[in-house]
C-alpha cells in the first residue's frame, strides 16, 4: 500500500506562488505515473497535471498551462507542483495520486489514478 502525503498549501494573494509536495511512504512510487488534482467546493474533482514515471511526459489542464509545473524526484519519492501566477479560481483542495502504469494514461481523469493523498488546501485571495 502506497501512502501519499501532500504539503505546501496555504493562503496566497493572486499572482503569488506556492510549491506543493507529495511525499510517498510505505512503498516507492518511482515506477508509476503521478497526478495532481484539485477539488473546489461545488465542483467535481479535476486533474491539474500529471507526469510519467521518468518525468519525460507531462500533462496540464488548459486552465493551468504556463502557470503550473509538475516535477518529480524519484530518489526522494516526491512529486512537486510549482504554482505561479495564482488566481482566485485556483482555490481548492489539492491532491496527488498514483497512476496504474509507468506512462501517462490515455484517458485523462481521476479514474486513472489511485492511492490518493489526504490533500492540502490552497486559497488564493483577490
Explain the overall architecture.
Strands 2, 4, 5, 6, 9, 10 and 11 form a seven-stranded mixed sheet that branches. This protein has no helices and eleven strands. The radius of gyration is 13 Å and the shape is globular. The model has no long low-confidence stretch (mean pLDDT 94). A hairpin with a 6-residue loop joins strand 5 and strand 6. With 126 residues, the chain is an all-beta fold. The protein has strands at residues 3-7, 10-13, 18-25, 34-39, 46-51, 58-60, 68-73, 78-83, 92-99, 113-114, 120-125.
State the main characteristics.
globular, 126 residues, 0% helix, 11 strands, 7-stranded mixed beta sheet, mainly beta
**Percent helix range:** under 10%
**In terms of structural class, how would the helical and strand content be classed?**
mainly beta
Q: How large a portion of the residues is in β-strands, by DSSP E?
A: over 45%
Number of separate helices? 0
Low-confidence stretches: none
SSE string, helix = H, strand = E?
A: EEEEEEEEEEE
How many beta strands in the DSSP annotation?
Answer: 11
Measured distance between first and last alpha carbons: 40 Å
Rg is 13 Å
Instruction: Tell me, rounded to a whole number, the average pLDDT.
Output: 94
Biggest β-sheet description:
7 strands, mixed
Shape: globular
Tell me briefly what this model is:
This protein is mainly β and 126 residues long.
What is the element layout, followed by pairings?
Elements: E1 3-7, E2 10-13, E3 18-25, E4 34-39, E5 46-51, E6 58-60, E7 68-73, E8 78-83, E9 92-99, E10 113-114, E11 120-125
Parallel strand pairs: 2-11
Antiparallel strand pairs: 1-3, 3-8, 4-5, 4-9, 5-6, 7-8, 9-10, 9-11
